[in-house]
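Cont'd.
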Amino acid sequence: MDTRNDLGVVTPRRRQDRRALQRCLAVLGTTLLAVVLLPLAACGKDQAATELSGYTREPVPDVSKVVLPLADGSGTLPAAATKGGYRLVYFGYTSCPDVCPTTMSDLKRAIRTLPADQRGKVDVAMMTIDPDQDLPERLTEYVDTFFPKNGAALRASDPADLAAVAGAFGASYSVKPKADGTPEVAHSGDLYVVDDRGKVVLQWPFGVGAESMGSDLATLFARQKSASSQ
Amino acid sequence: MQLSLKKSLLTLVAVVAAAALFAPACSSSDDSSSSTTEAGSKELKVSGVWARQVMDSGAVYMTISGGAEADALTKVAVPADVAGEAQLHETVMGDMSTTEMEGADDMGGSMGGSGSMSMQQVQQIDVPAGEIVQLKPGGFHVMLMDVKKDLKAGDTFDVTLTFETAGTKKVTATVKGV
C-alpha cells in the first residue's frame, strides 16, 4: 500500500503512521516534561558539587578539641569518631514528640542499611538542650530506646558548657518557660556527621530521611576507602 | 500537515486533561465507600493513621481528605489508658535570627537552611474542601502527653477526632516502632 514512501509520497497509510507518531510524541513530551519537572520541584537547595543529600559547611567545622560530657557523669567522649568511623551528634530533648524521634528513628534505620563492619564504626551521641528536664536517667533511657548499643547520652548541667559544645557545632537552641510553666523549646534540627579527625564532614537538616542518610554514610565510607587505596 | 498538527495538539490537551482528572481520583483511596448524602457531595475521610511513642510522649499522624465543604479538625482525644492528654500541634520551622538562640551566636544566617524548629499548640487544623491535609513528621501532628501504655509496633488504639462540620469520627491508629 505504501510502497513509494522512499520518494516522499504520502500515502494514506503513511499519513496514519505519522499521526500515530505525533500522538506518540505528544504523550512522550508530556511524560518527559513531568519526569524533568517533578524532580526539579522536589529538590530543595542545590548541593551541586556533591551527590550527598546532606550538606557540608565551608570552612568545614573542626570539633577535634571538643569534649562531649556523658550524662551519667562517668566522663567525656571526644567529639571525633573512632578510627575510620563516624560519630553522629544531635542536639535535642526527650519531651520532643515529633522532630527528635523522627530524626532518631530515621538515623537508626539508616545505620541498619550499612554492612556490619561499617555499622560497627558508627555511633550516635545525643546532647540534651534541656538539661533541667532531661535528668541523666531519663536522657539515657531515651537514647537507649533508639541506640542501645551504639548511643551515648550527653548532658551538661552548666549552661555555659552546653553553649560551648553546641556553639562548636553551630547548633542553636532556646528553652523558655511558657505561661503555663512548661518550657517552650526551639532548636536547630541538624544531625552532624563527625569523622575521626574531628571534622564535621556532613550535616543533615531535618527531614532528609533514612534512605538518604544511609546512602550518604555509605558514600562517606566508600570515599574513605578510595582515598586510602590511592 | 495542518490537520496533523491540530490533531497532535488536541492529543496533548487530552493527555493533560486526563492527567488532571485522574490525579485527584488516585489520591483518595476508597471512593466507593463514601456515601453520598447530597447529590455530588463528598465526605471528609481520614486514612493512614499511625503513631509513634518514645517513653511518655508520642505523636499521631494521618491523612485527612477534605469533603465537599471546608472543615476543620478542632479536637482530638485518645482513651485515658493510652495517654493523659492529646493536643493538636504544629512543628514550625522558623528563621534562626527571629528568636534569640543560645549556642551558635556567630553562625546567624549562614547555616544553609537549618532553621530553628519549635512546636506550638494549634486551635484547629483547617481542611479545605476537596484538599488533602497531612499530619506528618515536621508539620501538623497530634501530640500525646503523659503516655501511659508501653505501645509496641503493631499495637492499635482509638483516636476520636472532632471536626467542625463532619462531626466526630473514630479512627484507629497503628503504632510504628521507633
